[in-house]
Every structure is written in structure tokens, then in C-alpha cells.
Amino acid sequence: MTAPSAPSAVPPSSPRASRRPGPARTRRLAALAITSALVLTGCSDTGAGGDQLQVVEDPERASAAPSPATAEEPAGRVVPADSDVTDLAAADGTLAAALAGEDAVQLHDLDEPEADPRTVPLPGEADSLRTIDGTIVATMPDAGAFARIDVATGKAEVVDVDGAPTGVAADGERTLVALRDAKAVQVLDAHDSPVGTVRDDLYSADDVLVAGGGAVVLDRLRTAVFSLDLADDTIGEGLRAGQGAADATTDEYGRVLVTDARNGALLAFDTDPLLLRQRQPVPGGAYGVAYDAKRHVAWVTLTERNEVVGYDVRGGQPEEKFRLPTVRQPDSVTVDERTSQVIIGSAAEEGIQVITP
């Protein structure tokens, strides 16, 4: 099957463009201007002119805006959790939930979310969860390891790495591991043996993603994304990802989607070459992001409003399709690709919310 091509800006002469005359064209031109202004190589000399991608002198990673008490009943069903939910991922009808203070991941059956979950012990607390080829991958920075969790058996295969991993991605038979404190991305072969390390002018390597034939690393301290040249283990061009890059995922159009928590926006980047394709304003404390390939919908949590909003991203500009009330402090979100269920995690001990849009 031929992969879908990335959505592009609609030509001015098209009927759709005529319905959205000034603002849409202005946003697209602004995106191109931003892209042109912010491209630079990762190893460029910043001594004379300063670091063009550094937002402030002493950068800090963006955090989720605090949530007020919930004013509306959360949509769908809410399943209790024993602690704050720190991240979520779903595979084959099973939800994996990482909880604060627990050296384990809980597995919930999404057909019966109220049933007692299975517990998968880990050597450390899970910092992030991601689904890769039907397997849940959990990173454990304090343990210097990540784990591949088989949702059918509940068994975890632990892989030790030389650093504190905070993100994992698959690139063919290779595995890419973001090592935050080492400011590097480690490359593992099919047997999980290290075969290379990419480090060059990063402030932190908070996540790594593969899409559209390219790999990028998310640097949340610099609030930027950088392309990775895996052929010679170097950092390529970099682009500013708003004023507070927070969460990231990929879509089936070969793009990396990043939330800007400080400016309230959803950004879409092509990876080869690295290019800012879209910028959608998302007021209300944008933070977590997940993608539903069946519906072509990007889901973004709004922590200032206790909401989750869904955007159809097939066109030249994202179009809002859903807006639903959530549990308090909805920092994490994932999608079950089998059913398009949207699952929200509360970082305020209000549990796990399961929505069927």
C-alpha cells in the first residue's frame, strides 16, 4: 500500500482557500517565515551571535500548566488509579499506565477497564511509555534502562544502556535511545548492542522520534527539534519548537507533532528535510499529544481547562473535530488504534479516563 503523502498548504486558487481568504494564507506564510528564520546546523558557531535556538539564558523544561478543579463531568468512563498517572500507551486493546512512585507498569484491559490491572514489575520508575510495533516500551532513567513489555504475556525485557534514557524509537532494525543527561542519542543494533552515539551541541536529549524517513531528537531545554544524521553520527539542522516544547508523537504523514506548552500551540514538522509544516494555536494549556491514524486526528490535552481537543490534520491547517471535558490535570494521553478510544491520565490522582468519541 502506498503511504499517504503529507498534507500541504492549499493553493490560493482552490475552493477551500477561497473560503478562508486572509487568515489561513497568513498563517501558512508565517509558518514558512518562521521556518526560514530558524533553520541552522546543530554544530554551528554560536559564540559571536549567540545561540539562535536558546529561548532564555537559563533554560528550563516546560511543564504542564496547573489545572483548576473540574467543573464538568469527565466524558466517558473514569477508572481509579493508585497515584498520579505519569504516562500512558496502548497496544492491541491493552492500556499501559505508569504511576508516580511505582517501579512497575499497570496493564488494563480496555474491553473491561474497571477490572483489576496486571502489574509488570520493573527495575525503576517508568518515565515515559511508547508503543513500538505492538510492544509497550518504558524508559527508566534512574535505572539506566528501558524495557519492552509484551502486553499478551505481561513480561518485560529489560535493556541496560549507558545513560538515563527518556525516549526510544525504532529505525528499521536499529533502536534509537534518547539519553537526556548525556545530551546524546545512542544507536543499538538488532541485538541491542551499541553501535554508535550521536552527540553534538544538544542541551538535553529528551525524546527521539522517527517519521517520514528521518529521525529527530527533541531538546526540551532549548525547546527545539534537531535532525539526526545516523550515517555519520552527527546532529543536523535544528528548528525552534515554540517557546516550550513539551510532548511529541508522529503521524502517518511522516511528521513529528510537538506541543508548545508556553505559547499554546500544536506544531507539525516534516523530517526530511526538517521543516515546520503547520502551527495550530491551542489555547488553554496545551501539553499531552497523541495521534489516531484511523481518524487522522491529533488529540491535545489542555491542562488549564481540563479538556482534550481533537484536530483533523489531513488538510492544509488542522480542523477541530472534538472538544471534551477531562479529569483534572490531564497531562498524558494515548489512543488505542484498534478502537480509536482516547485515554487520558490524571496527574492529580483522579484516575484514568477512557473515551469513545
Q: Name the strands of the widest sheet in spatial order.
A: 1-18-17-16-15
Largest sheet: 5 strands, antiparallel
CATH class of the domain at 161-281: Mainly Beta
Number of strand elements:
29
Question: What's the Cα radius of gyration?
Answer: 20 Å
Mean pLDDT: 88
- Share in β-strands: over 45%
Low-pLDDT windows of residues:
1-6, 8-49
What is the H level of CATH, i.e. the homologous superfamily of the domain at 161-281? YVTN repeat-like/Quinoprotein amine dehydrogenase
Helix/strand structural class: mainly beta
Which overall shape is indicated by the principal axes computed on the Cα atoms?
globular
Individual helix count: 2
Under CATH, the topology of the domain at 161-281 is which?
Methylamine Dehydrogenase, Chain H
Explain the overall architecture.
The protein is mostly beta strands and 357 residues long. The protein has a domain of 121 residues: Methylamine Dehydrogenase, Chain H, CATH 2.130.10.10. It is 6% helix and 46% strand. A five-stranded antiparallel sheet has the order 1-18-17-16-15, with no helix packed on it. The protein is globular and about 50 Å long. The chain starts with 14 loop residues before the first helix and ends with a strand. 50% of the residues are buried. The N terminus is likely disordered.
